Amino acid sequence: MADRHIVVIDAGSSRARCFVLDQDADVVSSRSAEWRHAQVDDASPYAREFDSDWLWRTMCGLLSEALGDAKVPPRSIAAVTATSQRQGVVFLDGGGREVYSGPNLDLRAVFEGGAIDEEMRDRVYATTGHTPSLFFAPAKMRWFQEHRAESFGRVASVVTLADWLVAGRVTRSVARETALPEGTPVAIAGPDTQCGLLGMGAVSVGQVGVVAGWSAPALMVTDRPVLPAAMRTWAGCHVLNDLWTLESTSGDAGNAYRWLADTLWGGAKDAYHEMDAEAGRAPAGSEGAMAFLGPSPMDMGRVGMRQGGLLFPVPLTFSDLGRGHLARSALEALAFSTRANLERLEQVAGVKARGIAVGGGMVQTATWVSVLADVVGREIAVSPSPDVSALGAYVCAATALGEFESLKQGAMEMAERLNIVEPEAGARLEYQDHYERWRELLAGMEDLAL
After folding, report:
1. Which residues pair with 218 in a beta bridge?
2. Which residue of 7, 72, 344, 407 lies most exposed, with the fewest beta carbons within 10 A?
3. 112 by DSSP, 3-state: which?
């Protein structure tokens, strides 16, 4: 139908989002809300947990508001689908009631995960392609077994946040709460990062997709699981059945940049726009300022807290550094870590990337996109929309409706939207020196004790 719409829920790391997209995959309306985590009295200070009732009410409210903003007839809603953060899980009892719902930031199971890795790290990595175990459901299950035995005994199933939000169909009661038409088909999508690959058209072996949002994972598409002996990278499933991914992530990306915005531009009406403008006026290399705020080359064998901060030439009497230099240094650090992770992917896979696509919230910062192309020294294909995970989920739903012959065909149509950004020859050469200096200082900071 010409006025067909698809509703996408994206339960990402930083916030919950709801989108209404039209038949051209353009966003008609969207609503979002920051996550709110419940207090966990009997766990570590790093424990995070959702209040399931709050989470459901919030998602229903976002759905209703987005549909109201879209001003589309209910009959035009052809399907609803959801994607979510990869390590966010919900434990359900035999009656489908929530025992626990938690985000990927829930780190209550540090010791339990460590014990699992001590017992069977090689087996865990060979089976799942992922370590350390502290991030994942088995470690959280062991935490419940050891600290909440009664709750553990009631757990009958484990589902992702996305599956919990949309599993089943739109019933009459759900229709009343969300304004979705009763009986609306529910399509299954993949996790947010893998959906991001679909949304950028990264569906061919050798392609690399970078989803630069709260974090900045770089994933290379492979035709088999790649499991290096050092276990420094992750291997996982692509959304397409016959493809896999090799992953190296930069950790805190948008989250670190948000912290800098709050710290240096707090109270500004449009802090990110001002940051982008001031960073764009600072020269390449930020006149010696360097940021170590979180983004770094992935090494999943050495996960933990470390020293970081902002370094710049002193005494300040002889420099003219401003907050624009610090903002640019943070953007350069994310570009440096992205390049380092790209190089690691190519080294582990033994092949050069056959194209680099970039999406996520950081593509809204024009200075970062330009710096990334210069730092990597290759052309990059940039999504005009930051919401590549939602676009990938849209492709899943549209394929389920029969509008695409396959997920690959839908992804290729998304790839046609990407804009090519070329590196500037002079900046490319200059950034080689800055990159090497940043990596040298980062290596030296690893020996600093907390």
Report:
1. 210, 248
2. 72
3. helix
Helix axes 407-415, 192-200, angle to 10 degrees: 60
Which residue blocks in 71-182 are alpha helix, DSSP H?
A: 110-128, 137-147, 149-154, 161-166, 172-178
Please list the pLDDT of the chain residue by residue as tens digits (450 residues): 468 999 999 999 889 999 999 999 999 999 999 998 887 887 788 899 999 899 989 999 999 999 999 999 988 999 999 999 999 999 999 999 999 999 998 999 999 999 999 999 999 999 999 999 999 999 999 999 999 999 999 999 999 999 998 877 788 888 888 888 889 999 999 999 999 999 999 999 999 999 999 899 999 999 999 999 999 999 999 999 999 999 999 888 989 999 999 999 987 889 999 999 999 999 999 999 999 998 888 887 777 778 889 999 988 877 789 999 999 999 999 999 999 999 999 999 999 999 999 999 999 999 999 999 999 999 999 999 999 999 999 999 999 999 999 999 999 999 999 999 999 999 999 999 999 999 999 998 887 767
Task: Say how far apart CA 313 and CA 329 lie, in whole Å.
Answer: 13
Query: pTM of the prediction?
Result: 0.94
What SS3 class is residue 260?
helix
Contact (Cβ atoms closer than 8 angstroms) between residue 212 and residue 254: yes
- Which one, of 60, 380, 13, lies nearest residue 216 by Cα? 13
Domains in the chain: ranges and CATH: 5-188 (3.30.420.40), 192-450 (3.30.420.40)
Strand partners for 286: none
